[in-house]
Specification:
Archaeosine Trna-guanine Transglycosylase, Chain: A, domain 4; alpha+beta; Pseudouridine synthase; nine-stranded mixed beta sheet; 325 residues; 7 helices; disordered N terminus; 19 strands; six-stranded mixed beta sheet
Length: 325
């Protein structure tokens, strides 16, 4: 059977998309992919439909490296409603129970309760998460009205700051490890207060190591496309007029990998690495954090060839090989 031709153009890089509220992460991905005219794209770390904020999208060969971005710490800002619990732990769900907020709850006391959740925790994932139990996604079971036991998982809350408090609502800033569910954190805070709580707004402010990088919204991408496509005739307009400007927004493939050692290969080593064979390193640069067996592999022109495992004899064994062709 002949191989089906992949539609779209080869685009390689990472887009820090500011996901809008009201749609799935995959919907946002498909809109961006269509604007870029890309043949291949994927995202790292889904956001709920309610949530907004940083959604790294990997185009082309960057998709081979996306798994190495999933372990990153993340930052969120969330708005919390006290005294009401819902079946989804956010405002998209149905109200389960309404309880009185303690009349003597002060901003100081609320902050003290929140401080109890800083550190290493065991957290129960919400039913509307994408985790699989017995081969089924929890959110699919939740849609069927089913609830199953979820084993708690270890997470770390590095910091939790109360940005504002207004009696029955609050706004929090959270820095946490991968796999942390802010809805579960808010649920646990509500139970510690004795009145319950749910998330009314959630924004992911960053994904490490892109904390200092700006995001770009779908609306900005669409406006850029409309402006640039409007400068050409209808007969010429195929989306390509906007591609150079859109491509300039992409981060390089190795933008999230600079914590790893970097090795360079000569021409012979490049050929061996590309064919899945170990190659002798012509140069090794180790970051300040120390040696990691996983390393970035470059050719003599500083083009990323992929990721490899450093061997004791000064060679590197391929783990991910990029195809730039």
């Amino acid at each position: 059977m002949a191989r089906r031709h992949r539609r779209g153009r080869p685009v390689h890089g990472i887009l820090l998309l500011d996901k809008p509220s009201g749609g799935s992460s995959n919907h946002a991905l498909q809109r961006a992919k269509r604007l870029f005219g890309a043949s291949k794209a994927g995202h790292t770390g889904s956001l709920d439909p309610l949530a907004t904020g940083m959604l790294p999208i990997c185009f082309g060969e960057a998709t081979k490296l996306s798994a190495f971005l999933l372990d990153a710490d993340k930052g969120y800002e969330t708005t919390v409603k006290l005294g009401v619990t819902t079946n989804s732990a956010d405002s998209d769900g149905e109200v389960l129970e309404t309880r009185a907020v303690p009349s003597n709850l002060s901003a100081e006391r609320f902050s003290q309760i929140c401080e109890q959740f800083v550190g290493n925790l065991m957290q129960v994932p919400p039913m509307v998460s994408a985790i699989k139990i017995d081969g089924q996604r929890l959110y699919k079971l939740a849609r069927e009205g089913k609830e199953v036991e979820r084993p708690p998982r270890p997470v770390t809350i590095f910091s939790l700051e109360v940005l504002s408090f207004a009696g029955d609502s609050a706004r929090l800033s959270v820095r946490c490890s991968k796999g942390t569910y802010i809805r579960s954190l808010v649920t646990d805070i509500g139970e510690a207060l004795g009145c319950g709580a749910h998330v009314t707004a959630l924004r992911r402010t960053f994904v490490c190591p892109f904390e200092q990088h700006p995001m770009v919204s779908i609306e900005t991408l669409e406006q850029m496309t409309a402006d640039l496509e409007g400068s050409v005739t209808a007969a010429q307009s195929d989306g390509s007029a906007s591609w150079p400007a859109l491509d300039a927004l992409l981060l390089p493939l190795d933008a999230g990998l600079h914590h790893l050692p970097a090795v360079s290969l000569d021409e012979a080593g490049e050929h061996a690495f590309a064919h899945g064979q170990s190659a002798a390193c012509s140069q090794i640069s180790v970051p300040a954090e120390g040696v990691d067996k996983l390393s970035r592999v470059y050719d003599g022109n500083s083009r990323l060839l992929g990721l490899g495992e450093l061997l004791e004899e000064g060679a590197v064994s391929p783990c991910r090989v990029l195809q730039w062709g």
